[in-house]
Amino acid sequence: MSMAGNLRKVTGLDKVGGLRKVARLARRRPRVDLSHPARSPLGSAVVNCVAYQDGARIPGGRDLVDTVERVRKKDDGFVWLGLHEPTDQEFAGLADLFDLHPLAVEDAVEAHQRPKLERYGETLFAVFKTVCYVEHKELTATSEVVNTGEIMVFVGPDFVITVRHGRHGSLGPLREELEANPDQLSKGPAAVLHAIADHVVDDYVSVTDSAQADIDQVEADVFAENGARADAGRIYQLKRELLELKRAVVPLARPVQELATRPIRVIDPEIQAYFRDVSDHLLRVTEQIAAFDELLNSILQAHLAQVTVAQNEDMRKITAWAALVAVPTMVCGVYGMNFEHMPELRWTFGYPLVLGVIATACLVLYRGFRRNGWL
Predict the structure, then answer these.
(1) How high is the pLDDT of residue 62?
(2) Using CA atoms, how far apart are residues 277 and 255, in angstroms rounded to an integer?
């Protein structure tokens, strides 16, 4: 029988006896060192597993169940387990061990979720969209500006499980920052949730600041001397990338507001003050994205207006030159009809006179068009 099947038969995991029974069942399987950053204790998805007590790291054991047992036996501290794109099989044992809701587990494995906050008993399930700015030498109509990923967080009384999807958004540096601040880490799993939310929102701020440089460059190009010839595809590309950023930022406002204001069992009231700060930063980013969207609409409308004006100028020039060509065409057409009784047909100076009339008429038209700005 698999470990997941054995775990389903064990109840009362918060009790020492129950944990010892789970530990005996788990010892039938080979042990893998949790401290190794490149290997997985339950599969290739596990990045790290660390236990904390009073804000300090507890020396890790060689088995996840043993680590959880020590934390729950002392009734103090918590376990932080980090995973990257786990499969159903890799998550099955964890779901049973930490009593995770099947719907939340399905969302964590499948990914592609909107930012949200859900409560399942004493467990919180939060989804964050991570973003990063894609560096590029020159913005084109196909340039990728914003790359997105996801971080799912399970928060319980004595555990934090982070599930990351995507190539960016590593939580390693964040873990090091928290470990360097034991006072904050000692506040429990809620402090880790706040740190992740703050980290994600800080990335939003950084990406919007970087995107502003691209918008400023497009704006300068559109209003340059030859702005009508600027590539409108770049503006549409920026709007598409901005929409991707908006989908990550805007839906997160409500979950963060709930964490900052509503009483939640696993969130210490002292931590809620920190979530209010995160909410303020998120509001700033949301307003900035809305301003960017309006600005890009204005830039696009200005560009289309410039294109229309340039086309009108081209049409006026074409019309003016057509009028200049029409005068000699008309005169030459009349005298090309070969009638016998035409004015000055037999006159010696008739040919020079006709050329003079044509040149004079063309000169008058040319000066008139130049004076009106058509040429």
Answers:
(1) 56
(2) 14
From the centroid of its chain, how far is CA 237? 13
Report the Cα 249 to chain-centroid distance in Å.
Answer: 8
pLDDT of residue 229: 67
Alpha helices, H only, 83-142: 88-97, 102-110
Q: What is the pLDDT at residue 200?
A: 94
DSSP state of 228: G
Query: Which whole-number Å values give the CA distances from 214 to 116, 211, 230, in the listed order?
Result: 30, 5, 14
- For 227, the token pair is 């702005």
Query: Among 129, 125, 118, which residue's Cα sits nearest to residue 151?
Result: 129
Cβ atoms within 10 Å, residue 198:
18
> Which helix (H) or strand (E) is 321 found in, with range?
helix 269-335
User: What are the residues facing 82 on neighbouring strands?
Assistant: 48, 162
Query: Tokens 């979720």 sit at which residue?
Result: 113
Angstrom distance (rounded) from CA 297 to CA 129: 25
Model pLDDT, residue 14: 38
pLDDT at 93: 81
- Cα distance between residue 242 and residue 366, in whole Å: 49
Note the pLDDT of residue 160. 93
Low-confidence ranges of the chain (pLDDT < 70): 1-44, 60-63, 227-229, 337, 339-341, 344-345
Residue of 7, 9, 15, 274 lying closest to 158 (CA atoms): 15
In this structure, the number of other CB atoms found within 10 A of the CB of residue 375 comes to 15
Q: What is the pLDDT of residue 352?
A: 78
Contact assessment for residue 83 and residue 161, using Cβ atoms and an 8 Å cutoff: yes
Question: Residue 273 in contact with residue 212, Cβ under 8 Å?
Answer: no
